[in-house]
Write a structure and sequence with these properties.
Radius of gyration: 12 Å
Shape: globular
Oligomer: single chain
Helix content: 25-40%
Number of domains: 1
Largest sheet: 5 strands, antiparallel
């Protein structure tokens, strides 16, 4: 993954839901919204189980860059 791709992934897998069991599921793929200010403070903006976006610590997730056709399908399914 290139540095640019690491900065702007569209999806991430949850690795740790401790203290957020109602909001996050370990192993689940979540959509990421770009938030450069949050990222400078070690946070990632994620659409959680409620369908709302919240900030979580970056170390709870592993960012992924999926092929464009997969991203398109997942983004269409989430609307």
């Amino acid at each position: 993954m290139t540095p640019e791709q690491q900065k702007n992934p569209n999806f991430a897998i949850c690795l740790n839901n401790q203290e957020y069991e109602a909001s996050l599921e370990v192993g689940k793929l979540y959509r990421i919204l770009s938030d450069q200010q949050a990222e400078t403070h070690g946070f990632i903006r994620v659409i959680d189980e409620s369908g709302e976006d919240y900030l979580f610590s970056c170390d709870r997730f592993y960012p992924l860059n999926l092929p464009p056709n997969v991203q398109k399908t997942l983004l269409a399914a989430s609307h």
